[in-house]
Specification:
Blueprint lengths: L4 H23 L1 H4 L2 H16 L6 H30 L4 H9 L9 H37 L10 H34 L6 H20 L2 H6 L4
Helix pairs in contact: 1-8, 3-7, 4-6, 6-7, 7-8
Length: 227
């Protein structure tokens, strides 16, 4: 067998944890009450209020800042991909180093390279999410520029435009969040290079931190409907 049963079990835990968290956050009513869900509500409120503003330069400046954030993470993803692929060139030396650790497990070169390719795949996924988020923010900026003037803010056309813009804006934020999620889980994935049990522990730690930030963090409490 290429990987041991413990390796396969750890990898399965990693994949299931990622999928389960994504489903919880994006496809359940419980996830809608999380931090990301609350911010989505503010995205819609933002564009409704933008209709009532004659001067919208500040709105465009905010959009430029969001675009810069997505571009930064997309560039970081490319650098990380290069670093991951660079590990393939020094696999023999690193395998010897890891195997010599007190808590490390013997690893063949083929196993190390397979793990490295897996890490690169995660980072490529993150890059595509950040790049698409950046593109969607460009679309939102265009739709913001095409927003009806204040005199037409109460027309059905203005309402439709706000709904459409908010949906694209929410989609941009969703893809950005998915890219960041891939980064976080990539940190947990690094544990597999040392020991499969460490992959399970690191994944559980990452999952716990993300759940706490989404459903029990100070920013979420600040957004709750209470004094």
């Amino acid at each position: 067998m290429f990987f041991s049963p413990l390796d396969l079990a750890a990898l399965a835990f990693f994949v299931v944890a990622w999928i389960a968290y994504a489903i919880l956050l994006e496809w359940t009513p419980f996830g809608a009450n999380g931090l990301n869900g609350r911010i989505d509500q503010y995205r819609a409120a933002w564009f409704r209020r933008t209709l009532a503003r004659e001067m919208r330069m500040v709105d465009m400046q905010i959009m430029a800042a969001l675009q810069s954030g997505a571009a930064f993470f997309a560039s970081t993803s490319l650098i990380a991909i290069g670093g991951a692929l660079g590990l393939l060139r020094t696999s023999e030396h690193i395998v010897e180093l890891i195997s010599g650790l007190p808590f490390g497990v013997p690893t063949t070169r083929e196993q190390w390279e397979a793990k490295t390719v897996g890490l690169a795949v995660i980072l490529v996924y993150a890059f595509f999410k950040f790049a698409w988020s950046y593109r969607l923010y460009n679309y939102v900026a265009i739709m913001l520029g095409a927003m009806p003037p204040v005199a037409e803010k109460d027309t059905p056309e203005a309402e439709i435009h706000v709904i459409r813009t908010s949906r694209v804006f929410q989609s941009a934020g969703r893809h950005f969040n998915r890219g960041q999620r891939a980064f976080f889980f990539a940190l947990g994935y690094l544990g597999w290079f040392i020991h499969p049990v460490l992959l399970i522990a690191a994944t559980a730690a990452v999952l716990t931190v993300m759940l706490l930030r989404q459903f029990a963090s100070a920013p979420l409490h600040a957004l709750e409907d209470r004094e």
